[in-house]
Amino acid sequence: MTPPPAGLEARLAAFAAGEGFDALGIARPDAIAAAAPRLKAWVATGAHGDMGWMAETLERRADPRTLWPEIRSVIMLGLNYGPAEDPRKVLEQRTAGAISVYARAEDYHDIIKPRLKRVARALLAEAGSRGLSGDVKVFVDTAPLMEKPLAAAAGLGWQGKHTNLVSRDFGSWLFLGAIATTLELQPTAAEGDHCGSCQSCLDACPTGAFPSPYVIDARRCVSYLTIEHKGPIPADLRPLMGNRIYGCDDCLAACPWNKFAQDGREAKLAARAENDAPPLADLAGLDDAAFRARFPKSPIKRVGRARFVRNVLIAMGNSGNAGFLPRVEARLADDEPLVRGAAVWALGKLAEAEAVHRLKQQHLSREDDADVRAEWTVLAPPR
Ligand code: B12
Ligand code: SF4
Ligand code: SF4
After folding, report:
1. Which letter, b or e, does each residue of 50-88 get, where b requires 16 or more Cβ atoms within 10 Å of its Cβ?
2. How much is the pLDDT for 381?
3. Is-contact 201 251, C-beta < 8 A?
4. Residue 296 half-sphere exposure, CB side, CA atoms within 13 Å?
5. For residue 343, with 0-12 CB atoms within 10 Å meaning exposed, 13-18 middle and 19 or more buried, which class applies?
6. Using CA positions, which residue lies closest to atom 4 of ligand 3?
């Protein structure tokens, strides 16, 4: 295929800027050869936990050409969602829940995807006006594509020791999206690593989720535990989660490159005030309908009510606030075993031994779920 006339890339950049994207670069589909063996090695250690889809899509993930053989260029786009203030402030408010920055606003998938489609359509129209024909597909976290290595290859930044993409201009606060195309576009230069001797992100992690720099053990990451993990959260990690009820930003927020970042310009990505530090007391009693109504257009809805209330109960257990006990006790009889189990754990953290014993006698004999029975058993051995 002959290269397109000079200027198509410049028009592409203008379309992307017009749709509000803050960063753009172009990578060849074969640009991430080093990522494939690393990904395979990572999955082989089991670090992906119960994200079975990572292992199932391994081959396609390792090379975009397996996903789409005709692909010639991958356009990587970044959208700045830099918070107005340090998101870790809420971690000190033990009776409130900490929701990660990306989830305080509207679901970014819904914001980015239509924009990617418009940019892609404009690119095809522009190429057509130059006598070029091509095809496009857009991705935002929705396909087995390694967005971070591709973004680094396209020069948007580098994969920092916390494994996410760090940008000189936006620090750790870029959402990534991709347009794959059969058009042969001029690639942009890759970005080098600027972490140097810094390891602030590694030190900041509350659960020790980095076995080594640049490698995450998802099974220990609060983001995985609160969002992806469907079962009971391992007991040894619960106390380390503090009041984080949906995702975590500690490693991102610790990055010194954030000092060059600007607040996100996007109104739709601005935090909703009610999600800045929501009182835990308002969240533990949500039923299905109330949960959906509380988080309209939010990514939080994706985890469903049971997983979310599980997280809230763990935060209550970590709060040291015995005032939560009536709300915790109410969840001991919840329909969902996941919720009941977390309530038992929170009870053990907040209640006096006498109350624990009384409630155990009341609930254990009727409990038919093995996980919840185990929570009761660990909590206080039978007298
Ligand atoms: C699976 C996943 C997760 C998992 C696993 C996290 C992870 N680091 O992969 C969990 C649920 C934990 C997660 C959490 C979060 N995620 Co996430 N996640 C993804 C997803 C779907 C796939 C990522 C992937 O392929 N992981 C596989 C592993 C192997 O990749 P990796 O960690 O990058 O591993 C590489 C390094 O270890 C490297 N490596 C190994 N050794 C060495 C040595 C050196 C020297 C170097 C340089 C590299 C290196 O090689 C590996 C392969 O490239 C992407 C979307 C996508 N399709 O890409 C979003 C994505 C990565 N997530 C994103 C976000 C925002 C988050 C959270 C911040 C959300 C939150 N606030 O809670 C946290 C951050 C946690 C963290 N520190 O990573 C953004 C990141 C944007 C950015 N600027 O990078 C993405 C790109 C989504 C998006 N479209 O914007 N996520
Ligand atoms: S998101 Fe939080 S728990 Fe996960 S690796 Fe970063 S600091 Fe650790
Ligand atoms: S905190 Fe330091 S080590 Fe971690 S990504 Fe940022 S610059 Fe790199």
Report:
1. eeeebeeebeebbbbebbbeebbbbbbbbbbbbbeeebb
2. 52
3. yes
4. 2
5. buried
6. 201
Amino acid at site 255: C
Decide if 145 contacts 151 (C-beta within 8 A).
no
Phi, psi of 79 (to 5 degrees): -120, 125
Burial of 323 (0-12, 13-18, 19+ CB in 10 A): exposed
* CA nearest ligand 3 atom 5, residue: 160
Q: Using alpha carbons, list the distances in angstroms from residue 359 to 144, 168, 190, 330, 343.
A: 47, 55, 60, 11, 11
Task: Give, to the nearest 10 degrees, the angle between helix 8-18 and helix 108-129.
Answer: 150
Residue 143 CA: nearest ligand 1 atom is: 57
Residue in the structure block whose two tokens are 């410049």:
10
Residue-wise pLDDT tens digits, 233-268:
999 999 999 999 999 999 999 999 999 887 777 777
Question: Tens digits of per-residue pLDDT, 105-164?
Answer: 999 999 999 999 999 999 999 999 999 999 999 998 878 899 999 999 999 999 999 999
Class of residue 138 by CB neighbours under 10 A (exposed 0-12, middle 13-18, buried 19+): buried
Helix (H) or strand (E) holding 75: strand 73-80
Output the average pLDDT for the chain: 94
Q: Which residues contact 203 (CB under 8 A, 6 or more apart)?
A: 254
- Alpha carbons 62 and 58: distance in angstroms, whole number: 6
Q: What's the whole-model pTM score?
A: 0.96
| Å from CA of 316 to ligand 1 middle | 29
For ligand 2, is residue 58 a contact (CB within 6 Å)? no
